[in-house]
Amino acid sequence: MIVVSEKTIARLVQYRRLLHQLAARGVASVHSHELAALAQVSAAQVRRDFMALIAAGTPMHGYDVAALLEALRAFLDAPEGQAAALVGIGNLGKAILTYFAGRRPKLVIAAAFDIDPAKVHRLFRSVPCYPVEELPARVRELGIRLGIITVPAAAAQAAADQLIRAGVRGLVNFAPVPLQAPEGVFVEDIDIAMSLEKVAFFARSDRAAEPARGGRRPAPRLHAAAV
Amino acid sequence: MIVVSEKTIARLVQYRRLLHQLAARGVASVHSHELAALAQVSAAQVRRDFMALIAAGTPMHGYDVAALLEALRAFLDAPEGQAAALVGIGNLGKAILTYFAGRRPKLVIAAAFDIDPAKVHRLFRSVPCYPVEELPARVRELGIRLGIITVPAAAAQAAADQLIRAGVRGLVNFAPVPLQAPEGVFVEDIDIAMSLEKVAFFARSDRAAEPARGGRRPAPRLHAAAV
After folding, report:
1. B156: pLDDT confidence band, cut at 50, 70 and 90?
2. What sign does the CA torsion over A185, A122, B193, A52 have?
3. How many CB pairs under 8 A join A and B?
4. What ipTM does the predicted assembly reach?
5. Min CA distance, B131 vs chain A (Å)?
6. In 3D, which of B118, B156, B112 has the Cα closest to residue B134?
7. Which of residues A140 and A153 earns the better pLDDT score?
8. Which of A46, B111, B144, B148 is an S-S bond match for A32, by CB 3.0 to 4.6 Å?
């Protein structure tokens, strides 16, 4: 069992994306401070992250881009690929299906589910949409361990419970409600409405975000009374 | 100038959403531990957050839901309302316009921009779409300080730069690339692809997320060599 922090994985995914861009431009090697500037982290952080991935330690003349990409692939990707299920084919669900269509060979949305009779038994971006009643059987049959929830808030927990009972161990939740999940199930909430309200707050002329210090998240704290 | 942490604002937005749900069900007062359970934070955290909002301190018989909602409204919302600009009317842009349509009286997408001649000079969900060349003038004219970026990665920094030069001070960035922004501009990155890759990693049978301890985010650290 490999135990690793969520933030480390987010950085590794980010490094991989940047390294792919560098490789596409013909760059063969990269220094930690160059990658750090692109990823907006410290060079020391980049070196620490790669220390565990690359046996060779920190090279003097930069990391080999191809070797790093191979090490990241071996660490991040399931060798046999991974299938996901998406629940809720509204605008956001369709946007995510479109994003995925044909783009990621190792991560494929294999099934979608909806309650709308007009949507089921159709293909959306080559992904079959089934009635939500078939979710448990289909998810089990396909061995799906990754779920994407794009239903309204009121339906989100039920969708999560069904997915988890059918074997799902990772959820990306776009519904604006925190989900309850048992230990061993990883939940990532992407709360678009909350992000918009938060940014709207800080975009006002008389508001400012407390700056993060030394790479740590700022302590949650209210500096000024509001009433 | 009110200086406040990003996480505090995220929690206040979340409390407000939960309090609206309670109010809709006729609940008139709520204890900190009840709200804490719904928001998945500690009761002490709820009390600390409200201490700065509500002059009365921690009530014995629960907080008055209507008074809390009023205090949150006064703190979070711009009294005169706020206008946002959205750049990039693809699937995700449309999903966000649909989400907003008629829902939030205090936060309105007032203008959208795209480079596609087939999209400009049309309404999308009642929002006018202008050619991106008109962005600086329109954003200034409308006094917009909040921008939403839903363009492809390669176009994101240019869109951000244009918005910032026109007066925008908060950006929600959906493009899968970290944005550079000057001090005083608040940027929230919503990287859907990264979240999916991260959850896919932890959904695998032999992977686990390092648990967060005592409410703090886990230190970024790799426990196991990957190669």
Report:
1. very high
2. positive
3. 278
4. 0.83
5. 22
6. B112
7. A140
8. A46
DSSP B79: T
Q: Distance (Å, rounded) from C-alpha A174 to C-alpha A191? A: 6
Please state, in angstroms and rounded to a whole number, the distance separating the CA atoms of residues B225 and A54: 8
Alpha carbons B13 and B49: distance in angstroms, whole number = 11
Nearest to A168 by CA among A189, A151, A148: A148
Nearest CA in chain A to B82: A200
**Cα gap B25→A59, rounded to integer Å:** 62
The CA distance from A224 to B14, in Å, is: 19
Residue B211, pLDDT score: 65
**How far is B46 from B59, CA to CA, in rounded Å?**
12
Cα separation, B21 vs B24, in Å, equals 5
Q: Degrees (nearest 5) of the Cα angle B122, B123, B129? A: 65
Q: Is residue B223 pLDDT above 60, yes or no?
A: no
Contacts of B55 in chain A (CB under 8 A): 225, 227
Half-sphere exposure of A125 (CA within 13 A, CB side): 19
Comparing A31-40, A203-212, B40-49, which segment has the lowest mean pLDDT? A203-212
Segment 46-65 of chain A within 8 Å of chain B by CB: 48-49, 51-55
Closest CA to A32 of A67, A58, A55, A12: A58
pLDDT above 60: residue B150: yes
